[in-house]
Amino acid sequence: QISNVDVEEYKQARAAFSRDEWIDLLMQSIGLVPAHFNFRSRLIQLSRLIPFCENNYNYIELGPKGTGKSHLFTELSPHGILVSGGEVSIANLFINNTTGRMGLVGYWDVVTFDEFAGTNKKGDAKLKDIMQNYMANKSFSRGKDVFGASASMAFVGNTEHSVAYMLKH
Fold it and tell me: Most buried in the list 72, 74, 84, 169, measured by CB within 10 Å?
């Protein structure tokens, strides 16, 4: 929530911190008490920041309910949007061919899909193809034109399965 940032000042101040102190400071800056997390959990929490810092960074996180997966994406920055339910149209996400209006990837730094998977979701093959191309190439085509955008995409969802189970299936 700082309007003007002097990166050099941050670099100089960073040098005065140890690695663990810096991680704790970052945790506090996103409203979390570092003492409540082990080192691995701190890094997991901070990994949620990457899509806000890197253009076109794709992120996926699955975990139990109530672990804060979508919270950070709604509360951290006014430059991200959370699409609840995970359903969105090609026109809404990329560009509306009728109006020529740019979709979410052209306006937001991060587009997060909450509960993006499930047995009751209907699949749109065209949307899937455009999303895959966008995530791989930072561009998408609509009609005869190709457009670029820099929004990161994050996908968060609940699961009760273990990591081993998910990797196997």
Answer: 72
d(CA 142, CA 122): 22
Burial class (CB in 10 A: 0-12, 13-18, 19+), 158: middle
Judge whether residue 152 has pLDDT over 90. Answer: yes
**How far apart, in whole angstroms, are the C-alpha atoms of residue 23 and residue 42?**
7
- Rounded to whole angstroms, how far apart are CA atoms 25 and 41? 15
The pTM of the full predicted model, rounded to 2 decimals, is: 0.81
DSSP structural state of residue 35? G
pLDDT at res. 7: 86
**Residue 67 three-state SS:** coil
Contact in structure between 90 and 102 (CB atoms under 8 Å): no
Pairing of strands 139-142, 145-148: antiparallel
Give the single-character DSSP code of 121: P
- Cα–Cα distance for residue pair 159/115, rounded to 1 Å: 10
